[in-house]
Write a structure and sequence with these properties.
GO molecular function: siderophore uptake transmembrane transporter activity
Number of helices: 5
Pfam family, one: Plug
Radius of gyration: 24 Å
Number of domains: 1
Family: Belongs to the TonB-dependent receptor family.
CATH superfamily: TonB-dependent receptor, beta-barrel domain
CATH class: Mainly Beta
Subcellular location: Cell outer membrane
Protein name: Iron complex outermembrane recepter protein
């Protein structure tokens, strides 16, 4: 562990502070975040947050968001196979068979998290994302039910730059990787502008039965019909198909990590059943942003989604038809003197309704067979929120916010039950308060304190999981989060440090379990005590400049320490009280170095150290720790005044580590391990106008 930290701090991690090479002499651009409806300096934000800007994304491989998310302390993204992702904020991945749990995700003003609690983050193409802001810890004041945090994604097309631009990027690499991305941002008139991105990606994958294909189309259309009023359309269509190789036992993982889950005397194998997922989703919404006067603003959005989902699995063939509709509206009123006393008030509501028809059939080698179970579920959630913030002399920021959250679902068995009416399951209305303050001790140093309550009801995928049984006894997670932190930056903004400590006491934690067949189910585990420390630092050792051999050198690092333990947790005769929380490494250090040279050449190195991970609640099995090293080199040159060319090449897992990324926790029969790819490379070109 000590060697890992020493090594990592020599590479120090890149955050969103990376800027293009520029002729700057004294100050770098200040980092801001749009966390609570307005852009504000990260230095004075009252919550722990991470920001991934466009420049950081461009230093990655471009075919996945995973490394970029993992540059933020307290954030962990995993990949079981190409296209199969998990995202966790300050917590375990206990609830995540794939995708996201405990976290609310927005694309601009449109929730990606649906009424049933599911978030298909893997539908997004990395090149369609302009910026990501992550608010860590429960924050239901403006965003509704969550216990882990909030992810705010700004899509391409939201930039206010006046120039037209376009880019075409193509790259390929090991294990059958091929990717093509086309992105445009055009301004046909002073009142109308739009962005469009199209992407196609495929990969054969490292393991058997792990190929993936995705075609994604995304647009943002913006009409400023008056100088103070804007109407924008946001739409995304993604056709995602990927195979799922399944977990291996320790012996199988050691003997041949490329295997898909093999057959047993009781069940067929993943390759034989052509296990995989097809997800065709359309997301769309209209956002009306109106500045009514110099102090009052009103924002309203309406949105809807439709998902055609199929999942041939080891023991069944599942088909889901999902739809969601909703709206969100709020007012923002600001007044006062910024140099003396200013204040801001927000109030609004968000409402979502969703329907899910789930049908399970026999799986005959990837073909649909006879019915096993067919159910219809409907979910409804809505919340009201208010927030008041005040700023005193541009030094003290105080916030108080409150939301009231409602959640219910209805279910009906169509086969074999043939029920004529729905059965209701209502959850009690839950208050989610948040109070916080930030104080600027000096122009470069701030401290913050916050207290907030988390609340996360079970999702439809947990209420009716792949074992085909509706679990009406599953309760919502709740808890209180206590947090303190600081931020420091140099006067010229060449260095920035952010640290936080927190304690989150969760009740009724939802735990993922697997049956012998591999079908999953969920249960409440009782209390969980989550104590953590997060620290990140970034510094421009050589400030960006236009002269010299080394024209920019940025180093930084982030450290996450997690002491997460089960509270009172008993299952039958087994007592797991005090055990390490399943799926959480005790420490991670993610670090990087960015170097810029003459002639448009730049180099980027990323190192990720992850400690061992408990794989079952009894803490009898662990995934080994690993060091993951990635690198990329790019050459940018101008073909003429308007057209630029970039040639790039990179590699992943350069140390050729044998590790499992995206473990199947609490897997029956010890099938925990999903082997990650060995050393692999990629390369490509990009044209920018």
């Amino acid at each position: 562990m000590i060697r890992a930290i020493v090594f990592s701090f020599t590479l120090l991690s890149l955050r969103s502070f990376a800027q293009p090479v520029q002729d700057t002499t004294t100050h770098l651009e200040e980092v801001t975040v749009r966390a609570y409806f307005v852009e504000q300096p990260l230095l004075r934000l009252t919550t722990s947050a991470g920001v991934v800007g466009r420049s950081t994304l461009e230093h990655q491989s471009g075919h996945t968001l995973l490394p970029a998310f993992n540059t933020m302390p307290g954030v962990r993204m995993e990949e079981r196979s190409p296209g199969s992702y998990r995202l966790s904020l300050r917590g375990s991945l206990l609830r995540s068979p794939f995708g996201v749990r405990n976290v609310k995700v927005y694309l601009d003003e449109i929730p990606l998290t649906d009424a049933g609690g599911n978030t298909y983050l893997n539908l997004l193409d990395a090149d369609g994302v302009d910026r990501i802001a992550v608010l860590k810890g429960p924050d239901g004041s403006l965003f509704g039910a969550n216990s882990g945090g909030v992810v705010l994604i700004r899509p391409v097309g939201m930039s206010n730059e006046a120039d037209n631009s376009a880019s075409l990027r193509m790259n390929g690499g090991s294990f059958g990787l091929f990717q093509e991305q086309l992105t445009t941002q055009l301004n046909p008139s002073p009142t109308y502008r739009f962005g469009f991105s199209q992407a196609y990606q495929r990969a054969d994958g490292y393991r058997q039965n792990s190929e993936m294909k995705r075609a994604a189309f995304q647009t943002v259309q913006r009409w400023n019909y008056t100088p103070a009023n804007e109407l924008r359309l946001i739409a995304l269509y993604s056709d995602l198909r990927y195979r799922t190789p399944g977990g291996l036992t320790k012996a199988q993982y050691v003997d041949d990590p490329r295997l898909a889950r093999p057959a047993t005397p009781a069940t067929p194998g993943a390759l034989e059943q052509q296990a995989g997922i097809v997800n065709k989703t359309l997301i769309g919404g209209l956002v009306h942003d109106a500045q009514l006067n110099g102090k009052l603003k009103h924002v309203a959005s309406v949105f809807g989604t439709h998902t055609d989902f199929s999942n041939p699995f080891i023991t069944n063939y599942e088909i889901r038809d999902e739809y969601n509709v909703g709206f969100r509206t709020y007012v923002d009123y600001a007044d006062g003197d910024p140099n003396a006393f200013s204040w801001r008030f927000n109030a609004g509501l968000e409402w979502q309704y969703g329907g899910t028809d789930i049908s399970n059939y026999d799986n005959h080698g990837g073909s649909q067979g006879d019915e096993q179970a067919i159910d219809a579920l409907k979910s409804l959630q809505h919340f009201y929120f208010v927030r008041l913030s005040a700023d005193v002399a541009s030094r003290l920021t105080m916030e108080a916010a409150l939301s009231l959250n409602y959640y219910r679902y209805r279910y009906k068995s169509i086969f074999p039950g043939n029920e004529s009416a729905f059965t209701d399951r209502d959850f009690d209305a839950e208050w989610m308060p948040r109070v916080a303050l930030s104080y600027l001790f000096m122009p470069q140093l701030s401290g913050r304190l916050s207290l907030s309550r988390g609340y996360s009801p079970p999702t439809i995928a947990e209420i009716r999981p792949s074992d085909n049984m509706v679990n009406t006894a599953l309760a919502a997670e709740t808890g209180w989060n206590y947090e303190a932190g600081f931020r420091w930056q140099t006067a010229n903004r060449r260095a920035f440090v952010d640290g936080s400590v927190f304690y989150y006491r969760m009740e009724d934690a939802i735990i993922r379990q697997l049956r012998e067949s591999g079908a999953e189910f969920f249960d409440n585990a009782g209390g969980v005590n989550q104590r953590g420390v997060e620290l990140s630092a970034v510094v421009w050792a050589v400030e960006p400049r236009m002269h010299g051999v080394l024209q920019g050198l940025q180093v930084g690092s982030n450290l996450t320490l997690s002491k997460f333990r089960f509270g009172d947790y008993r299952v039958g005769d087994d007592d797991f009280t005090g055990n390490k929380l399943t799926g959480v490494p005790a420490s991670t250090v993610v670090s990087s170095l960015l170097a810029q040279f003459p002639g448009g050449i730049s180099g980027y190195i990323l190192h990720n150290y992850t400690a061992s991970i408990p794989l079952d609640d009894a803490n009898t099995a662990f995934a080994d720790s690993y060091h993951l090293l990635q690198a990329k080199i790019s050459w940018d040159t101008a073909l003429n005044k308007q057209l630029k060319l970039q040639i790039f090449a990179g590699g992943d897992n350069l140390l050729n580590q044998k590790y499992s990324l995206g473990n199947d926790i609490n897997a029956f029969g010890g099938r925990f391990f999903n082997a990650a790819a060995t050393r692999n490379f990629y390369g490509g070109i990009a044209l920018r106008y």
